[in-house]
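Entry for nicotinamide-adenine-dinucleotide complex. Fields follow.
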Amino acid sequence: MNTTFSGQVGIVTGAASGLGAAIAAKLAGAGVKLALLDRDAQGLAEIHGKLQSDSQSYVIDITDEKQVSECIDTVVAQYQAIDILVNCAGITGQTNIKSHEVSTDDMQRVFDVNFKGSFLLSKYVLPVMLRGHYGRILHIASISGKEGNAGMLAYSASKSAVIGMAKVQGKEYAGTGITVNALAPAVIQTAMVEALPEEQVKYMTDKIPMKRCGSLEEAADMAAFIVSPQCSFTTGFTFDLSGGRATY
Ligand SMILES: NC(=O)c1ccc[n+]([C@@H]2O[C@H](COP(=O)([O-])OP(=O)(O)OC[C@H]3O[C@@H](n4cnc5c(N)ncnc54)[C@H](O)[C@@H]3O)[C@@H](O)[C@H]2O)c1
């Protein structure tokens, strides 16, 4: 896969941790020039320092439209193009609670990061991709967006919205050289999962027929394929990464 990405420029959000860091490392290893975005300055500096490639890091809050638009302008000024966008930044918000216990503020916060943040990145990156007649956008969704995880209303609903966005955008840009897809992982051991209540993690892992969590390597490999030039006849689709939990 190394030569296929030659000369390409990519953006990965949530690059300071977990899936975002793993996907960034995979793409950097394949020769993609990278813009790493996260609000966690320290984590981002650590991940950036480990990459042996042409890359820049940008500390931004992806829910802030001005910060997103200025960041994309800076990336374009630096690299002149954007071929790949991986929207990986995300939060769970409160979990292990029933819908009537969900705070409206928390619901809003989760939608702001998971849906609005991914929307904003795609809104400002798409015109750049349209100018280049090429692009690969990958929104990291979740199995909870397909199946609905009890105890995780805000998170599950926000990820359903992300899946809906991939469906819409896939159709809107089909024929332009740009594909837009989503990825729906089940449980992958990261800081996000470590912060969840034990009961909530057990609920999620018990549902995986393979009886194990996915690995960061498996997530990064699949993400790299989805944003590669070879993945050219699939758009608007949500790829599965759930050890058999979702079979549709
Ligand atoms: N780990 C899993 O089991 C799992 C399963 C399904 C989906 N996902 C999704 O994968 C993505 C990555 O999850 P992870 O497990 O690697 O989580 P993580 O907590 O390890 O990493 C998420 C990153 O997003 C960043 N972030 C959060 N809000 C931000 C904001 N407003 N602006 C900029 N950066 C922000 C955080 O600082 C963090 O570095 C998320 O979208 C998550 O919902 C994870």
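NOTE: Strands lie at 9-13, 33-38, 55-59, 84-87, 135-140, 178-185, 238-241.
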